[in-house]
Amino acid sequence: MPSLIDFRRRIRSVKNTQQITKAMKMVAAAKLRRAQQQAVQSRPYAHLLGDMLASVAAAGAEDCDHPLLAQRTEKKILLVFLAGEKGLCGAFNGQLFREGQAFLKAHAGKDISFEFVGRKGRDFFRRRKVKEAGEWTNVLVSVKFQTARDLAKKLADGFSAGEYDAVYTIYSEFRSALSQTPIAKRLLPLKPHNEDEQPGMREEFIFAQPAETMLARLLPRYLEIALYQAMLESAASEHASRMTAMDAATRNAGEMVDRLTLTLNRKRQAAITTEIIEVVSGAAAAS
To answer: Are 192 and 57 in contact (CB under 8 A)?
Structure first.
């Protein structure tokens, strides 16, 4: 049976943990505001660049022989897997791991290599002996466009050289502080237009240069922006999930302190009652 001093130590320990989780929540909330602002502000540019690329393709560049548009049978696949840099962020990493395992199952029998962005994804799949093409760690703490540009160049060079027949990415799309959705998306070969989009729905652009020249300039930039947007979405999702998890941990610690305090008071009251009974019984026996 735990003694009163054991309960006091336990309460003190839980309170210390509560202070840590509360501080982590505040730090995550501050980082989330910046990451969310970056992710939301970059979305219009990414969508506009996609519309521009589709308009160029519709202007007569479908026959453009660009290496990033080469359609090949998917035998060798490169998966760019974006996960968290740290833990203590709820189900954020777990959802991405399940999405990655589902991707492996859906593409069973194919040669799949992983390009890891973030520590947690690397550590998880490295224990499962997957084929690793490269890793990018500590890049989601502060997302830089140069990182996305370097990664895009590596992917484009590998795809153009025939090292991979397709390039996919898995990342978490930020929707709100309470909602983050893991998605799998094909990056290469690029599809410069939406097959489901009906004519007249897309804004038309007027270009002075030939469509082939514009397409050759836009395709690499579109790949860079797609990777940069995925990194921003993943970083914002990680901060949001960590803030939510630390908020829940702080509230749970408070509830645990209340329960332990109640139990401590009951035991102390019971001990005092026992002592009073012993004193009264001793006095009665002496008389």
So the answer is: yes
The answer to whether residue 64 is catalytic is: no
Q: Which segment of 13-17, 24-28, 61-65, 75-79 scores lowest on mean pLDDT?
A: 61-65
- The CATH number fitting domain 4-23+245-286, selected from 1.10.287.80, 1.10.10.10, 1.10.1840.10, 3.40.50.300: 1.10.287.80
pLDDT tens per residue across span 11-51: 999 999 999 999 999 999 999 999 999 999 999 988 888 88
Do residues 86 and 175 lie in contact, with contact meaning Cβ atoms separated by under 8 Å? no
Whether the link from the prior residue into 189 is cis, omega within 30° of 0, is yes
State pTM to two decimals: 0.84
Domains of the chain by residue range: 4-23+245-286, 29-242
Are 4-23+245-286 and 29-242 equal in CATH topology? no
Structural Rg of the chain based on CA atoms: 28
HSE-CB for 171 with a 13 A CA cutoff = 29
Half-sphere exposure for 185 (CA within 13 Å, toward CB) = 15
Catalytic residue chosen out of the listed positions 64, 78, 79, 89: 89
3-class secondary-structure state, position 21: helix
The domain 29-242 is classified under which CATH number: 3.30.420.10, 1.10.10.10, 3.40.1380.10, 3.40.50.300? 3.40.1380.10
- CA angle, corner 266, sides to 265 and 272, nearest 5? 90
Alpha carbon distances (Å) from 243 to 64, 76, 232: 47, 38, 17
CA proximity to 68, closest of 137, 158, 199, 176: 158
